[in-house]
Design goal:
This protein is mainly α. It contains 24 helices and no strands.
Length: 536
């Protein structure tokens, strides 16, 4: 095998070429759409495996350079494409052949755009592919054209995406005028040669951060992500497991630029942490499985952007991959979890004393386990280092494993300690692995780290308080705000209806009431729960 052939494989273009070819074939032979999709999904999975093998061979045998970040994401996209395709074919049984072909074409176009996005090293192609994912997703979100809620929510997403793309266009112009190139390697070389980051590139970094904030449904322009439940479940899986995560991937690609732009870092940390905290509280009030998962995605995207703003690129990459796999599974299995209950989150009065003690002391126990694990690992991997904010996030994330609902027994304590210890070792292994894939960690200001620490300690405290006193004064006052999403989406919805309303057909514009009453007030549009509310 020649090094030239290996280099072509390492470029990773196999996956988008396969999906794009399948997209063209589905346009030419729509009656064979599912057969084409099935073959392309399997071929894409094989291509991703071949690319991974070629990458490892090139690194170990031929000493070639490789884009490990792209190759890693290729495995994820190929796997998701294969799983979602198989699920969607069963899910859409009974619909018309035209609907089947339309769905397959939209899915293949979206997968092509995602594949191009993760493969390209040129900012113009990245921007075009990122816009392509939005157009493909819009096609899928409006799969059921007769559903008014689907059309209006997709229109809200359309507006947000176009605002993000305007920000990207301006950023690309600023970068080209300053650096004379849109190639990422050449841009990184230009930045490395500068004594300080030019002002225009500061603005460009801030605009890319804004685009990522808009594309990842951060508060207060998050409503479209929560209200797209009218789309088929495979579309929800593709959106939450793949497309919405691409904002984090683009920022990781631009790590060298973002690391030198304090304004962009502050935007990502402040908006991301606020979204993570508020969406995390809202999620506690939801009973609908899919809506709860949507709020979870909103919170997790905020968490990921916050990590990027802090320069924790390896943690953000790990978060991206883990979130994608989890959300794909969660949405595709959501129909089997409706019967699950959350009664266990609330405790009777005779247990509150034990729960309170466990909740207060468990962070200290978790901190001891994490610190001891890090010290042990440093004997074998001296380069391993966790910043204080990463340690805090890890401790607060693992602490619930120590919560003892049945009292502070020795067996319960040992069980919690074993769980925390095992998950800590797993995280440290992933941390070392993803540090080799992601760009070098950046340096965030102490102010931003303090902000993040306060935000997550506050979230932990509020969730603990609500958990212990669900009927207390704080819970009763907070519940209406959290249940209504802190009323953050209403302003954007009103502006949408006022300045750029969705164009609906007469059938779509009718409300359910109007349809039952033989078309009285036909064509009117009312702001009912199907338009602005959440599907519950």
């Amino acid at each position: 095998m020649s090094s030239t052939f290996l280099s072509s494989l390492l470029s990773g273009w196999l996956l988008p070429v396969i999906f794009f070819t399948a997209f063209l074939l589905s346009l030419y032979r729509p009656e064979r759409a599912w057969c084409i999709a099935k073959i392309s999904a399997r071929t894409g999975l094989i291509a991703a495996a071949v690319t991974l093998t070629a990458t490892l061979t090139g690194l170990l045998v031929f000493n070639l350079t490789a884009d490990l970040l792209s190759v890693t994401l290729m495995q994820l996209v190929a796997l998701l494409g294969w799983v979602i395709t198989g699920f969607a074919r069963r899910y859409l049984q009974g619909e018309s052949p035209q609907q089947h072909a339309r769905f397959v074409q939209g899915m293949l176009f979206t997968l092509t755009s995602v594949g191009l996005l993760i493969t390209s090293q040129h900012l113009l192609l990245i921007a075009l592919a990122w816009a392509g994912t939005s157009f493909g997703l819009h096609h899928l979100l409006t799969h059921y054209k007769e559903r008014k809620a689907a059309q209006i929510v997709a229109h809200k997403k359309f507006i947000v995406s176009r605002l993000a793309e305007i920000a990207m266009v301006i950023a690309l112009v600023l970068i080209y005028q300053t650096a004379g190139t849109l190639s990422l390697p050449q841009l990184n070389a230009f930045i490395a040669d500068q004594p300080a980051l030019p002002v225009a590139l500061h603005w460009a970094a801030a605009l890319f951060a804004l685009a990522a904030i808009l594309k990842t449904a951060q508060l207060p322009l998050h409503g479209w992500l929560i209200q797209v439940m009218e789309a088929p479940t495979p579309v929800s899986a593709l959106l939450h497991a793949g497309v919405v995560n691409m904002g984090g991937f683009v920022l990781i690609r631009l790590a060298e630029l973002i690391s030198l732009a304090p304004v962009a870092q502050a935007m990502l940390v402040i908006v991301g942490s606020l979204t993570a905290v508020l969406a995390g509280l809202v999620m506690m009030t939801r009973i609908s499985i899919k809506v709860r998962l949507a709020w979870s995605t909103c919170a997790q995207m905020g968490f990921m952007l916050m990590e990027i703003g802090l320069g924790l690129y390896e943690l953000a990459l790990l978060h991206l991959l883990a979130h994608s796999l989890y959300k794909a599974y969660a949405f595709l299995s959501s129909g089997e979890t409706v019967a699950q209950s959350r009664i266990g989150d609330f405790f009777s009065k005779d247990k509150k004393r034990h729960v309170l003690l466990s909740t207060l002391f468990s962070p200290l126990l978790t901190l001891a386990v994490v610190s001891a694990s890090v010290m042990l690992w440093q004997q074998f991997a001296p380069g391993l280092h966790l910043s204080p904010v990463v340690t805090l996030i890890l401790v607060l994330g693992l602490t619930p494993l120590f919560w003892q609902e049945k009292g502070l027994s020795l067996s319960a304590f040992i069980t919690g300690a074993v769980r925390v210890a095992l998950l800590t070792q797993l995280y440290l292994i992933w941390h070392l692995l993803f540090a080799q894939l992601a760009p070098a960690a950046g340096i965030a200001s102490q102010t931003l780290m303090v902000w993040v620490a306060i935000s997550f300690i506050t979230l932990y405290g509020l969730q603990t308080w609500i958990r212990l006193w669900p009927e207390g004064r704080v819970s009763r006052r907070l519940f209406p705000w959290a249940f209504n999403g802190f009323y953050l989406d209403e302003t954007f919805t009103r502006l949408t209806f006022k300045y750029w309303p969705a164009r609906l057909s007469p059938l779509q514009a009718e409300t359910r009431f109007n349809r039952r009453n033989s078309g009285s007030r036909k064509g009117s549009i009312t702001t009912d729960s199907a338009i602005t509310g959440e599907q519950s």
